[in-house]
Design a protein that fits this description.
Layout (H helix, E strand, L loop, with lengths): L2 H15 L11 E3 L7 E5 L7 E7 L2 E7 L9 H12 L6 E5 L4 E5 L6 H8 L2 H21 L18 H19 L6 H19 L4 E3 L8 E4 L3 E4 L6 E3 L1 H9 L8 H15 L7 H30 L8 H12 L6 H12 L1
Antiparallel strand pairs: 1-2, 2-3, 3-4, 4-6, 5-6, 7-10, 8-9
């Protein structure tokens, strides 16, 4: 039995016994007892139902991910993590897996996310530098994960942000923004007025060339580490899609607002990293980025409001307003979607 696996088994025994509360607040710490010398600290989770703990023993520290039991050979997190590692994309090291327990022991990357770093620096030049580095990491993600047509090293290569998937995200938001959050019953006509323009938007987006996308690439899913620099996390849902999906996630982040001038400057920086062979028409690329931002931000609102409706989790509701304003500003750039902008504004604010 490896030492790393023993860490998992000891932690599982203590968590199951009730010696450490699984419902306690993030940051709470309990010692597991002198016989094991293990200290367990509950960490703030992500938007999923996974739980995270920091395990400490003397000078060693690891992260425990706890979820439902799974099959190691079919678990997306492990499959994508191993694939990205082979491709040379910085990801957390997986140290041990106990699939029957639903637990994975990971390298401890610390607590400093890109969002934390942005709050600490509060400097325009440092802000630009951080976002440039995040785009360099994204460039690695997009370029190093290319495979030959037909190859599917992980299941995500067989999935895509096609019209059906993009519209599923739109419908998800229509349900939860107006139902779960605003408690507003739309008539069939009102629903059609909102949905039909999104069908056209999603058709245009689905026709674009695809790469392997992270799917949730934003400032909370990038860790800043002293030794390894930036490391991406929460990549298990990666699938094929247009580059703009990830670019909209990071540059029009619901959690952190950039000026429009800086957004386009950073977008140009990403284009320069990719080269003219990959992106030959800048104007079209920018238009698709703005259009993708509308759909991506709309999906984010759907996630935030669904957490509120399904789990009574209001933590993300504070980001709905900023995200909606991102949508409104970008819709104004497309005269053909003037009525969509007006109708969204009407149903959200009045």
């Amino acid at each position: 039995m490896s030492t790393a696996s023993q860490w998992i088994k000891d932690a599982h025994q203590l968590l199951s016994s009730g010696d450490v509360s699984t419902s306690g607040s993030a940051g709470s710490t309990k010692n597991a007892g002198a016989e094991k010398g293990l200290e367990i600290q509950k960490l703030a989770g992500d938007a999923s139902l996974r739980k995270y703990y920091r395990l400490r023993k003397k000078s060693e520290s690891f992260i425990l991910m706890a979820t439902e039991p799974f099959e190691k050979s079919k678990f997306d997190f492990l499959l994508v993590c191993e694939h990205l590692k082979k491709c040379g994309v910085p990801v957390p090291e997986v140290l041990a897996v106990e699939d029957a327990l639903g637990m994975i022991l990971l390298e401890d990357l610390g607590d400093q996310t890109m969002l934390h770093q942005l709050g600490d620096d509060n400097d325009d030049a440092m802000e630009t530098e951080l976002f440039r580095k995040s785009l360099e990491l994204l460039h690695q993600f997009h370029s190093k994960t290319k495979v030959k047509t037909g190859e599917k090293p992980v299941p995500g290569y067989g999935l895509a942000f096609d019209e059906e998937k993009l519209m599923w995200e739109v419908d998800f938001t229509l349900e939860h923004l107006f139902g779960s959050y605003l408690k507003r019953k739309l008539t069939d006509v009102q629903h059609k007025q909102l949905r039909d323009p999104f069908v056209d938007i999603c058709k245009r987006l689905a026709a674009e060339p695809r790469v392997f996308t992270h799917r949730d690439y934003h400032s909370r899913n990038i860790m800043i580490t002293p030794k390894r620099g930036m490391v991406c996390i929460d990549f298990q849902d990666a699938r094929m899609g247009l580059r703009a999906y990830d670019l909209a996630s990071i540059l029009r982040d619901s959690y952190y607002q950039l000026s429009e001038e800086k957004i386009y400057s950073l977008l140009d920086y990403y284009v320069s990293l990719q080269g003219s062979n990959e992106i030959s028409n800048r104007k079209h690329f920018v238009d698709m980025f703005d259009l993708m931002s509308i759909q991506r931000n709309f999906k984010a609102i759907g996630s935030f409001t669904s957490f509120y409706g399904k789990r009574n989790d209001a933590m993300y509701i504070r980001f709905v307003g900023n995200t909606f304003e991102n949508i409104r500003r970008n819709l104004a750039k497309f005269p053909e979607y003037r009525e969509l902008r007006q109708n969204l504004f009407l149903h959200y604010y009045f």
